Amino acid sequence: MAQIALAVLLFPAAGAAVLGLGALRLPRRAVQVIGPGVVWASFLLVAYLFWHSLSHPQPLNLTYWTWVHSGSFQVPANIYLDRLAIFMGLVITGVGGLIITYALGYMEHESDASYARFFCYMDVFILSMLTLVLSGNFVFLIVGWAGVGLSSYLLIGFWYWRWTAVIAARKAFVMNVVGDIGMILGTFIIFVSFHQVTYTGVFAALPGHDTPALEAIAFLMLVGGVAKSAQLPLHTWLPDAMEGPTPVSALIHAATMVTAGVYLVGRLHPIYDVAHYAQDTVAAVGAVTALFAATIAIVQTDIKKVLAYSTMSQIGYMFLGVGVAAYAAAFFHLMSHAFFKALLFMSGGNVIHGMKDEQDMRRYGGLLRQMPATAICFLVGSLALAGIIPFVGFWSKDMILGAAFSKPAGQFPVSMWAIGFVTAILTGFYTGRMWWISFAGKPSPDRPVERPHEAQAVMLVPVVILAVLATVGGFIQMTALHVNVTLIENFLAPTVGRISWSGGALELEVTVATLILALAAFGLGYLIYVRRSLPVWSRALPFLQRLLEHKYYFDELYDAIFVQTMNLSARGGDTLLEEPVVEGTPEGVGSAASSSAGILALAQSGYFRTYALIFLGGALVALIVLVAVRA
Hints:
By secondary structure, this protein is mostly helical. The chain is built from 25 helices and 4 strands.
């Protein structure tokens, strides 16, 4: 078992190494086999581990060697193989394999060297993400965490000749490093408090009550999760990251990377279960981010930007789930989100590909007749995102809202449910708006392509597979409408425990109300943007539209607080320090030396009488000094 778990990491590592070293020499056919092939090999190994775990639910702490041993500080190179790690591994390699296979067609226009470089970066990302979820200690968790940040920087800025892509990659890297610092400081406190950094050692040493140290650890780790998962206030990098190729958006910013923060809180649930203030903060951050991002999504016109803000919103739901200790619900939504959001990005990529890279959905229209397969798949993803029965998003989203609604501790979870309820309605509206504008009605006169063609098979087959998963995936965990199928919860129970439901019959009413209102909001888009029988809301509230279009002015605020402040400091340092001291000192020394040399040059006239006069003058000065000293 230890060799199989290690091979899960070695396959993408080997693929990345081969593609990176042979980028200029490998034929394209070899790249097409190696790039996705190593990910599918890892998926098969994780599937075997999944099958084995069904009869052996006990976690395995597999130590291969001791990486660092200095006094009491020991860092083993170990893999912690429990059901949560296996669950995450299946999502990463399964959905990741479909996305990388899809990229074979999407990136085919690239040169051979760029083609190999792209799949090398993708394999590095898969390796980093697997390291993150399989690591058995906090140090290797940070290594995988940083690796994900690095590979996302490389993938977002893949088209490095685009200035916007370079800026977006840099922004994502800097924002994620802020989170990395929080995790490093949290790990430092963990070692100081417990003198170990392995999960098993730390969890066994936890006190049974809340302490300031535990709260500090939980809050610092939350900083890392908030940055990686693009939650408020470290969220501004995610929409800009859409500058990367669409398969990158699907893999990193929909299915895997942005869910790392949810995994982090779930993995550290023994800490958050005790650190109540930090856990409540997780729920609050998730709920507020879900509503915040949903409001911005309703005014976006770039199809990928709509999906980006919907990602922020759905990750907010997951944070709400882990914040109310409904860990299985959050991870179920993580899986369902991977299905329908990867489906939306990839089917949206088919549209962008067919429309000559045009991303403004106002310039689409009427695509249902010309790209029927992509349109239907996009509709499936949209209905799943909106939480419409029977698609997977309905079951997973309702599980989180039900857990928040039925939480018995005070009114705080109920208020979080109310925010989630409003967000669900907004999600139905902006999702419907996106689908109706893009695929229904008449073709836009501003279309770049009059008759776009359907995507090729290598791009369409993964989309169809994800559409099927988004349709039937919820049937393995159905707790809404008084249905009781709990396969996901049963599988994760040995790691994160079960969900306590106590809401009674009222949960049925709120579930039905959420479903009806979300469906009505989805249909409202047809009346406004296709039939045009209702006015667009922004005409009555132009100030609100401006506020949302500027994303609540977060970028402008950060620019004023951080960027302009640093620019002002840099200019002040240049004026007060750089020019007068750093540059002025050597220039002053040089000027002094030059002036002294000019004065001394006067004595070098070449005339004997001048030298004799200087000699006599010097001797006279020496005599006067000698007489003065003796006197």
